[in-house]
Amino acid sequence: EVQLVESGGGLVKPGGSLRLSCAASGFTFSSYSMNWVRQAPGKGLEWVSSISSSSSYIYYADSVKGRFTISRDNAKNSLYLQMNSLRAEDTAVYYCARGEDDYEYYFDYWGQGTLVTVSS
Amino acid sequence: DIQMTQSPSSLSASVGDRVTITCRASQGISNYLAWYQQKPGKVPKLLIYAASTLQSGVPSRFSGSGSGTDFTLTISSLQPEDVATYYCQKYNSALALTFGGGTKVEIK
């Protein structure tokens, strides 16, 4: 069974940093692209960042470019999102999602999400 | 950037009704379109990819169609468990994996 479990969310002050993790199991992690998608309270879905299976290709939404860094460790079956210079508008539930492959970036499995709150 | 516009933003229909949700891309995206269902308080679930391919395990009352700029998600016979918000997502380019604004479906 595919499982994605996010961790690392919490309350952080504007300008602060946070590192999210996603632990994957139940599939060959190194064969799939991985992604972060967020959802602000009461709002719709917003794609944040994607990374290909071997980390060769990395993509960011304009809203986080230069502030967030996606990475993965295939040996540990883990995905990460380093978030710096956080803003109030980054407040959201952050979901880890599996991509179909390195060419088809739709999301077939999602984690339960971890809440990030940016507030003073 | 290509924008994805869903309509309507919400709808109310009776059990058994045929429900249609539209997603329009501001530029052509071939068939690189997915649909997701998010029930209240739950995680999004993939319903359809490649505009019309049903994800494994999704009930056959869901179907998708379209290509280029205009896409449709249809629920052939609305069921109470279909109450959810539905999102389209384009994936023709990993540089911008844009979601539509969502369509909230309720039972009348």
Explained architecture:
In chain A, strands 2, 4, 5, 6, 9, 10 and 11 form a 7-stranded mixed beta sheet that branches. Chain A has a 4-stranded antiparallel beta sheet with strand order 1-3-8-7, with no helix packed on it. Chain A has 120 residues and is mainly beta. Chain A has strands at residues 3-7, 10-12, 18-25, 34-39, 45-51, 58-60, 68-73, 78-83, 92-99, 107-110, 114-118. Chain B contains no helices and 10 strands. Chain B has strands at 4-7, 10-13, 19-25, 33-38, 45-49, 53-54, 62-67, 70-75, 84-90, 103-107. Chain B is globular, with a radius of gyration of 13 Å. Chain A binds chain B through residues 35, 37, 44-47, 50, 57, 59, 61, 95, 100, 104-113, and chain B through 32, 34, 36, 38, 43-46, 49, 55, 85, 87, 89, 91, 94-102.
Summed up:
The complex is a heterodimer of chains A (120) and B (108). By secondary structure, chain A is mainly beta.
Query: Percentage of helical residues of chain B?
Result: under 10%
Q: How many DSSP helices of chain B? A: 0
Largest interchain contact: A-B, 22 and 23 residues
Q: Look at the helices and sheets of chain A and give the structural class.
A: mainly beta
Strand order of the largest sheet of chain B: 2-10-9-4-5-6
Low-confidence stretches of chain B: none
| Whole-angstrom Rg of chain A | 13 Å
